[in-house]
UniProtKB/TrEMBL annotation:
Keyword Ribosomal protein: no
InterPro entries on file: LytR/CpsA/Psr_CW_biosynth, LytR_CpsA_psr
Transmembrane segments: 83-103, 115-137, 158-179
Protein name: Cell envelope-related transcriptional attenuator domain-containing protein
Region (Disordered): 1-45
Keywords tagged on the record: Membrane, Transmembrane, Transmembrane helix
PANTHER family: POLYISOPRENYL-TEICHOIC ACID--PEPTIDOGLYCAN TEICHOIC ACID TRANSFERASE TAGU
Species: Rothia endophytica
Family (UniProt): Belongs to the LytR/CpsA/Psr (LCP) family.
Domain Cell envelope-related transcriptional attenuator: 218-399
Pfam families recorded: LytR_cpsA_psr
Length: 533
């Protein structure tokens, strides 16, 4: 017998211990028969429950802020390297765009108003969304939720689902609205280039009304927005719809039809020119998409003494849909506004009154907002212009980023039906740039009628006087001087109406203050006042 019984036992135990395949040493003690796994990053099964939870939350956070890093740290290194390269590239592009925004803002705006770029950008966002979702799902695999304690397993899973919704869902929705916006830009805006005139962009805004009781479409509200191309200082000049004896810009083809101007009497008020040219003289503007709009620009240019080359027409036939897409508008109504009324142009008979919009703060849907803007019963043209400006202010207030993003598709669909323009798509970057600059200035408001001129000025206009007033106003606007009211005889008025509204459309806009009404020869009805709460 070579070994004693005790030695035999020791020898048997030693021989039964496993030998490490690399070192050749045998495991001892409590690790007997178990692999020596001490790395919780790759082997969470050997870690404590608390360490597993920390590992899971760390992986989730890394995938949120640095996609691909988890895969690089674990067993998917090839995927991790590629994902991390994409992540760093995206961050580099974002930093580059921020730098360009600070130095060459117009270049960035031109990119994001280009349909080809928007197409590529939408596809990029969609690809990033799909890739991020994949990385989150792969991170869930690496976390191994089955090893987590009950509440941590549930919380980690719920947070990962929420992260997928915010990141992948957010990028996917961004791709969707980018694609929709790309289509809207192509269908609404024209080709060509945006032109300056003496350092200004002059754009005619029109509200076209083609109701069932009317013959053709007429622009019942006309406002020229004149913007300084270098500073962004903006001026709005309201032109009364009932202005008579309108003259045209030099070189306009309208002179061949109306050599004395549009002066055939009470029927030839300014807003009647649009349907007249559309129906009878479209050949005067053979290359125009909308001859009536081109004719109106020629007339407004002649009336004001400035060249207006672009227009934006909002057709009231789709106005209801646009207001509904915005979720309605809130207005503090100044008096009872009839729904219906007025005279039917087709029959000559009075229209019935079907109800009233009551005074006070009202949330108006599209139907009631349309009637609030166009109701004629018991109101003057100046009442209607005041209400229309109030509606415009309320709509602008509704166009906050959150509202636009959540209702973008509906707003865009309505906009394609409502908006008509000859503003070129390539000029949107220039207008966007000056619009951002304009925030540094108050909006200056002016009108070719009361309170800046007497009430009978639209019937017997003095165009030389008006041209001089517009020229003086534009000159003084560069110095931040608001326009003053003038009389029909050309003298300066007293300071009684110095507080006429020249405020920006912001938190609370009061349209037509009491001092304005006091200057009119005839008293305005109560529904000529309103405000945006």
């Amino acid at each position: 017998m070579l070994f004693s019984p005790g030695e035999a036992i020791v020898s048997d135990q030693r021989d039964s211990q496993p030998v490490h395949p690399i070192s050749g040493m045998r495991s001892r003690g409590q690790n007997l028969g178990k692999p020596n796994l001490t790395d919780p990053l790759h082997h969470p099964e050997a870690a404590s429950p608390a360490l597993r939870s920390k590992r899971a939350w760390l992986f989730l956070l890394l995938t949120l802020v640095l996609p691909g890093s988890v895969q690089l740290m674990t067993d998917r290194k090839v995927v991790g390297k590629r994902a991390l390269a994409v992540t760093l590239t995206v961050w580099a592009l974002i930093i580059l765009m921020l730098g360009l925004w600070l130095m060459r803002r117009t270049m960035v705006l031109s990119l994001f108003t280009n349909t080809w770029f928007l197409s590529a950008f939408a596809l990029l966002l969609l690809s990033l969304a799909a890739g991020w979702v994949y990385l989150f799902l792969d991170t869930l695999r690496a976390i191994r939720p089955s090893l987590l304690a009950g509440k941590h397993r549930t919380l980690v899973t719920l947070c990962l689902i929420a992260a997928i919704f915010v990141t992948g869902g957010g990028l996917g929705y961004g791709a969707y609205i980018t694609w929709v916006g790309r289509g809207a830009l192509g269908s609404i805006f024209a080709d060509g280039a945006l032109n300056e005139n003496e350092g200004r962009y002059n754009i005619l805004l029109m509200g076209g009304d083609a109701g069932e009781d009317r013959v053709g479409r007429r622009p019942d509200s006309m406002t020229v927005v004149s913007i300084d191309a270098s500073t962004g200082q903006a001026i709005t000049i309201s032109v009364p719809r009932n202005l008579q004896n309108a003259i045209f810009e030099q070189g306009s083809p309208l002179w061949s039809v109306y050599p004395e101007g549009f002066n055939c009497g009470d029927e030839c008020i300014l807003n009647a020119l649009y349907p007249d040219v559309t129906a009878n003289y479209p050949d005067l503007y053979p290359e125009a998409e909308d001859p009536g709009a081109e004719a109106t620009m020629d007339a407004v240019s002649g009336v004001l003494g400035i060249t207006v080359e672009n227009y934006l027409l909002i057709d009231m036939s789709g106005f209801e849909q646009l207001v509904d897409a915005l979720g309605g508008i809130t207005i503090d109504v100044g008096g009872y506004v009839p729904i219906g009324g007025g005279t039917n142009e087709l029959t000559g008979e009075p229209n019935p009154i079907d109800g009233y919009i009551e005074p006070g703060v009202q949330k108006l849907d599209g139907f009631h907002a349309l009637w609030y803007a166009r109701s004629r019963e018991g109101a003057s043209d100046y009442d209607r212009q005041a209400r229309q400006r109030c509606v415009q202010a309320a709509m602008l207030k509704q166009l906050d980023p959150a509202n636009v993003l959540t209702k973008f598709a509906d707003i865009t669909a309505a906009g394609e039906q409502v908006v008509e323009t000859n503003i070129p798509q390539s000029g949107l970057s220039q207008l966007g740039d000056v619009a951002l600059k304009s925030k540094d200035y108050d909006l200056i408001q002016f009108a070719a009628g009361p309170p800046y001129f007497s009430e009978d000025f639209p019937t017997y206009p003095d165009f030389d006087q008006l041209h001089a007033a517009v020229e003086k106003m534009i000159s003084e606007s560069a110095q931040g001087i608001a326009p003053t009211a003038t009389t029909a005889q050309g003298g300066s008025s007293t300071s009684e109406i110095a507080d006429t509204d020249t405020s920006t459309i912001s938190d609370a806009v009061t349209v037509e203050p009491v001092s304005f009404r006091a200057q009119l020869a005839s008293e305005l009805s109560p529904n000529g006042t309103c405000s945006v709460p």
